[in-house]
User: Fold this.
Amino acid sequence: MVASSSSLKLQDLIQEIREAKTQAQEREVIQKECAHIRASFRDGDPLHRHRQLAKLLYVHMLGYPAHFGQMECLKLIASPRFTDKRVGYLGAMLLLDERQDAHLLITNSIKNDLSQGIQAVQGLALCTLSATGSAEMCRDLATEVEKLLLQPSAYVRKKAVLTAVHMIRKVPELSNIFLPPCAQLLHEHHHGVLLGTIMLITELCERSPAALKHFRKMVPQLVHILRTLVTTGYSTEHSISGVSDPFLQVQILRLLRILGRNHEESSETMNDLLAQVATNTDTSRNAGNAVLFETVLTIMDIRSAAGLRVLAVNILGRFLLNSDRNIRYVALTSLLRLVQSDHSAVQRHRPTVVECLREPDGSLSRRALELSLALVNSSNVRAMTQELQGFLESCPPDLQADCASGILLAAERFAPTKRWHIDTTLRVLMTAGTHVRDDAVANLTQLIGGAQELHAYSVRRLYSALAEDISQQPLVQVAAWCIGEYGDLLLEGSCEETEPLQVEEEEVLALLERVLQSHMSLPATRGYALTALMKLSTRLRGDNNRIRQVVSVYGSCLDVELQQRAVEYNTLFRKYDHMRAAILEKIPLVERGGSQADEEAKESKETAQLSEAAPVPTEPQASKLLDLLDLLDGPSGDAQHPPPLDPTPGGALIHLLNLPCAPPPPAPIPNLKVFEREGLQLNLSFVRPPGTRTLLLITVTATNTSGGDVTHFICQAAVPKSFQLQLQAPSGDTVPAQGGLPTTQLLRILNPKKAPLRLKLRLTYNHFGQSVQEIFEVNNLPVETWQ
Assistant:
């Protein structure tokens, strides 16, 4: 009693702490008061215990340790006095959590308080359970909370619904307990209870496929509730800026989005309502924009009609004209999601998207850049590339790499002509050459080499650009390569596509020497320039003494790569001068990868058509090959089928110019299921290319049959040191629910020793609101994967 009388009241303690001039004075006051509080707890003063704990909670809020008050919280919760319970439950919510075993000691007290008929005490117990309840507490108290869901008091029902939401998040297995009361709660007229019920049903549907199937029967009832909100309103006290209860509208729309996803009947039921909400909601206020945005998200996720999707895109287009930057940002993000499925509808808003590139806000301009690049196609590539190049010249440095790479990729995919492709790439290199991808130099040299009619045009453009600026290293590398290959065309001066350009040999050599001597030139750039000088020794008509002198100087360069090149070139001058012209002749470039792949696909298609023209199912492999040769060499109408040959290789090889008989294709490697949990399944399929038996291609396929999407999905792999592993980029990071489009990822494993393969996988993803990480080893791979 003496300790409590000498301690301060809560108001006095707050005032004294605020009056402290320094942090040291504040610590002194708090330490002194904490000593009084400890003494009061030891004396067991029941009348002033709640006051001491209230002061301790204030000290805890200031960041000072208050763990010694945890057991006092339990004593106050067990007290029959309401003033004690109120402070005790508040202390439990602030001082206790799942990491401490003490929180389990209040389970019986909460159970007793929930069974009482005092609404205020039941509300305190429910608030504490929903804030700090662990999985064990939720399992023990689920039945008590389920009983309170149908209590007469709306105050208790509202808090019980919110507690049930917390329980479902902690223990999804408890969903069956809360399914029956939800049907009755949907008829609730109390705003708080109805809003909480919608949240509870949403959590149930996201975590339980059975609950999702159950609540799809209630879609008409949810549609009726939302239509009533839109037409007549719920109550004036819940309206915001003329929008009837936007919080309840948003929650219902989110629930409808979950119920209508991948379900035709439910989507059809809500189509008319969504159109009504989209057309009748006021957009002059932020509350109306929030409802409209949720409506758009729902239209995008369900199986809505085509006209409704166009309406959703138009709403997002109106959002782009809004003065609020946040609204413009969510519009750009949503359009980026829609551009793959509704490309033509999003294209109508292309001018507005391009205008957003000029936004001073970095996040907005980045989103606008991503969307602009996604909108590029073969019909608008010229106009869009011109806009993007204008943006590249003035965009912030952190966006230059993305913009430059995007322009180069778009030009590679949709270039109308080779000259336009070359001009576009050169302009990007001149503007932001230091920010382009590593393969930009190789791609451009391959493009120029494959366009023989543009060699003279390209070398003149590059020479002019190099004479103006030698700081952009990728541009300098391409220019040096092109001057070395086609320097003779540069000196001829006969190019109809450019203005007349008179260049002397000495000017070309001086420019390359300038590149070699520049402090801005990288070692790789100097290597390009030195090789270009060496090639010009066979393409120029003048004396090569100047070139020999430059090459000999770099024979003692500190850079090993450059020194080795110079030494080899010097040796070529001194000992093998008669072979120099043949060695340094123009490089024959192979066709580009894309066109080559197209030609291979075309050839395989023609071969398939030819093989189907005269099928002989019963003949052995060698006979089929002879038939194919006949079809290719002679007219198909006069082709005569030879008699069936011996299926053994010896008899057939004599007739095929002694070529070895192609071995039969290897048997397919069976697929392997390596993981399954809560509807998420992981399968491995294997392919060993015939030409490279040490290479194994593994396709990881993730499918999801549960009711909730698997998001932020990442698959990582590891192999023993004797193997080489390369992970390709996955097709996406979301595995759609209900058996949607699977997510795939390719693993390339090189096994030079043909050792038994062991694979370790690590999966990280979010499912039903929980973060999951799984690490497991796959040891049962088929022997065909490594033998």
Notes: The CA atoms of residues 552 and 570 lie 6 Å apart.
